[in-house]
Amino acid sequence: MSAIRLLVLGAVRQHGRAHGYQVRNDLEYWGAHEWSNAKPGSIYHALKQMAKQGLLHAHEIAPSTAGGPPRTEYEITPAGDEEYFTLLREALVAYDQKTDVKSAAIGFVVDLPRQEAVALLEERTRRIKEWRAAVLEHYVPEDGPEQLGHIGEIMNLWVHTADAEAEWTRGLIGRIEAGAYTFAGEGEPFVGVLAEDQENPYATGERHPDDER
């Protein structure tokens, strides 16, 4: 799975309707350009592609009286909303997602009902446990990685990664079950996007031809 689709759909969805530069600005505000492939070119490409696929509706906005080209504002469609939640659920349960996909999923987890989020994370821990057991069919941690030569360090890394992932996931489940955060249907959600005129302290300042479109 590519993180960019989940990130872009999530950003548009939080605004309700947003032009491309707003989406880019939000992703830079979240630091996504540092931990994912959310670079300007890929963001604008994703917006255009998902509009062609019917996941976003593109509204062309007339230029302001000050001049300049018309801008396109994007709004998520019912098909886009369905795709967004499919990607989000898949990212939360899969044990082998890349860091950018996992990070995006955790950033949007509160868009789900609390109990569903817990159930998905519990499924994640089950899959991690299953994967760890598969590794142990070929590797005995107690005997050390040297038993397989330096290649044993790979399986040693896998086991330690599985243990750390499982521990972190269980901790998150505990915090959610204890009432942390505001989930879907529980009241005013956490505001994670910038207002139209709000300055972004984390903006890269890198210019892109599509910034004004």
Q: How would you describe the overall organization of this protein?
A:
- The structure is a single chain.
- By secondary structure, this protein is mainly alpha-helical.
- Helix content is 54%, strand content 8%.
- The chain has eight helices and four strands; from the N terminus they run αβαααββαααβα.
- It has a three-stranded antiparallel β-sheet.
- The longest helix has 26 residues, at 152-177.
Features:
8% strand, 4 strands, 213 residues, mainly alpha, elongated
Distance between the termini: 27 Å
Morphology call:
elongated
User: Low-confidence segments, ≥5 residues, pLDDT <50?
Assistant: none
Number of helices: 8
Strand order of the largest sheet: 1-3-2
> Beta-strand percentage?
5-15%
- SS class: mainly alpha
Number of strands: 4
The proportion of residues forming helix, as a percent range, comes to 40-55%
> The biggest beta sheet, please?
3 strands, antiparallel
State Rg: 20 Å
Secondary-structure element order, N to C: HEHHHEEHHHEH
Q: How would you summarize the topology of this molecule?
A:
Layout lengths: L2 H13 L2 E2 H10 L2 H4 L4 H13 L3 E6 L9 E6 L1 H16 L5 H10 L5 H23 L10 E4 L1 H26 L36
Summarize the structure.
With 213 residues, the chain is mainly α.
